[in-house]
Write a structure and sequence with these properties.
This protein has helices spanning 2-24, 28-39, 42-48, 66-73, 76-79, 92-101, 113-120, 164-175, 180-183, 193-202, 212-220, 245-250, 252-270, 275-285, 295-304, 313-324, 328-332, 342-349; strands at 52-58, 82-88, 106-109, 125-134, 138-141, 155-158, 186-189, 207-210, 224-228, 235-244. By secondary structure, it is an alpha/beta fold. It has three domains: 2-48; 52-135 and 235-349, D-Maltodextrin-Binding Protein, domain 2 (3-Layer(aba) Sandwich), CATH 3.40.190; 138-232, Periplasmic binding protein-like II (D-Maltodextrin-Binding Protein, domain 2, 3-Layer(aba) Sandwich), CATH 3.40.190.10. The protein has a five-stranded mixed β-sheet with strand order 2-1-3-10-4, sandwiched between helices. It has a five-stranded mixed β-sheet with strand order 7-6-8-5-9. The chain is globular, with a radius of gyration of 25 Å.
């Protein structure tokens, strides 16, 4: 407040002196212009256009989260009036806790035990957008595993039980007719995808889910990509944007700005002229040693994201069915109650898609 007062005082004092000089010279046009300039409030004008501060969290390090890296690096968040901070958290539960406490506004992640469990537990969490609405990524194994049947009795790496990588793995195994309990498939909790790749390379585990960037690196080292999960056609709420319903009610404009930024970023990624910028963002976000290592991830990013960013009701039903087998609270959830697509519908009415 003190700064505003003194700024106004100096402007007006300077203005009075200039007005007297201009009056003496009969410069009517300049006089009127100066009066308009002096009566304007530059401080309030700046404050009115100040961007909204928001925090996006995300869990897994893969090209799937690349849309956030690009939106930040290319200034797209800023262009839509958002002062956005993008923060990597170690797991879904950390992201859910941050949303619950109000420390963050958005989480980019999948339908997992953490997010669906939070909803079942009473948190007013909803998917406000779906950026990737199918299973994607690669299932990488050591060269001795040649068929799906060879996975029986093997150890598979996951980041956490109930997390995104576990969910990807369970849906893929189910699709292949494999049952971890019946077929003796063991899960070993390690860490993020970079560590999973190291665990496969060292023989600590026999295989595991990896995004396309890390999967391509492992294939170059002689490991086998047993399957490209995107080709299985399994509906799944892969990468979605989550927020609390109370936040969406309270700040619809901020919610819309965030989703407009996502739509523009997807278009930016799909423009071939932006390839170098996208690869730099992806390499930096995934902490790759060389920008060239982001090539495979970039190629997949061009086809991963949906243009119409509606959450996937069918994909959410798939998750509720799987998780509901062992959780009564989750069985009571309806897929329709886990989404709030008001902002997306408004964007579509405006012709944004």
């Amino acid at each position: 407040m003190e700064k505003t007062f003194w700024t106004r005082y100096l402007i007006l004092d300077w203005g009075k002196n200039m007005i007297e000089k201009l009056r003496q010279k009969n410069c009517l046009f300049l006089l009127v212009t100066l009066i308009l300039a002096c009566t304007a409030d530059p401080i309030l004008g700046i404050a009115a256009s100040a961007p909204s501060k928001v925090v996006f969290t995300f869990g897994g390090l893969s090209e799937r989260s690349g849309v956030l890296f690009v939106a930040k690096d290319a200034g797209i968040f800023q262009r839509h009036g958002l002062d956005a901070q993008v923060v990597n958290v170690r797991s879904g539960p950390v992201g859910m806790a941050a949303l619950a406490s109000g420390e963050t506004q958005f989480h980019a992640g999948s339908a997992t035990g953490a997010s669906i469990g939070a909803m079942a537990g009473g948190l007013d969490l909803v998917f406000i957008a779906g950026l990737i609405n199918k299973l994607d990524g690669t299932f990488v194994v050591n060269p001795s595993i040649k068929t799906l049947a060879d996975l029986k009795g093997k150890t598979v790496a996951v980041q956490s039980i109930g997390g995104g990588i576990w969910m990807f793995t369970m849906l893929a195994l189910e699709h292949w007719g494999l049952n971890p309990e019946r077929d003796g498939i063991k899960f070993r909790v390690v860490s993020d995808q970079a560590v999973i790749a190291q665990a496969i390379a060292s023989g600590t585990v026999d295989g595991g889910y990896l995004g396309y960037t890390f999967g391509a690196q492992m294939e170059r080292q002689g490991f086998r990509i047993l399957a490209d999960l995107a080709k299985l056609g399994i509906p799944y709420q892969g990468l979605g944007i989550m927020a609390r319903r109370s936040f969406v009610d309270r700040s619809p404009e901020v919610t819309e700005k965030a989703l407009r930024a996502m739509v523009e970023t997807i278009a930016f990624i799909n423009d071939p002229s932006n390839k170098a910028a996208v690869m730099r963002s992806l390499a930096r976000g995934l902490r790759l040693q060389k920008v060239e290592d982001a090539e495979a991830g970039y190629e997949m990013m061009k086809v991963l994201y949906d243009r119409r960013i509606y959450p996937s009701i069918e994909g959410l039903r798939n998750v509720l069915r799987l998780l509901g087998k062992s959780n009564e609270q989750i069985r009571r959830l309806k897929a329709e109650d886990t989404v709030d697509d008001r902002a997306v519908r408004k964007l579509e009415r405006e012709g944004l898609f």
